[in-house]
Design a protein that fits this description.
The chain is of the alpha+beta class. It is built from three helices and two strands. The protein has one domain: Double Stranded RNA Binding Domain, CATH 3.30.160.880. It has a two-stranded antiparallel sheet.
Length: 98
């Protein structure tokens, strides 16, 4: 059963429905996303949050692909793509709330 969880990314709160098993993972992912977005933004606070989110997602997806290519056999590429798709769905849901 999904329960609402509020995460904070770039000083904005987002509520996402997750199961109890996913709660800790979501919180960890939100902290990582927040840190990465802040790193990319740097001192430029004028960059549009949606552009920043897309650039961050692209960087994370690229890193995931690189890691998968090194650590996972080619047969498991579908798993990596599913992870990227799930990350994109969650990002879309967060952006839709803003």
């Amino acid at each position: 059963m999904s329960e609402p969880v509020t995460v904070r990314i770039l000083d904005r709160e987002y509520t996402v429905g997750v199961s109890d098993e996913e709660r800790a993972g979501l919180a960890s992912a939100a902290r990582m996303l927040d840190a990465r977005m802040r790193e990319l933004r740097g001192g430029n606070r004028m960059v549009a949050p949606d552009r920043l989110a897309v650039l961050t997602a692209l960087n994370l997806a690229h890193e995931l692909q690189q890691h998968s290519a090194k650590a996972v056999p080619a047969a498991a590429d579908g798993d990596a793509l599913r992870l990227i798709d799930e990350a994109n769905r969650r990002l879309d849901a967060l952006l839709a709330q803003s």
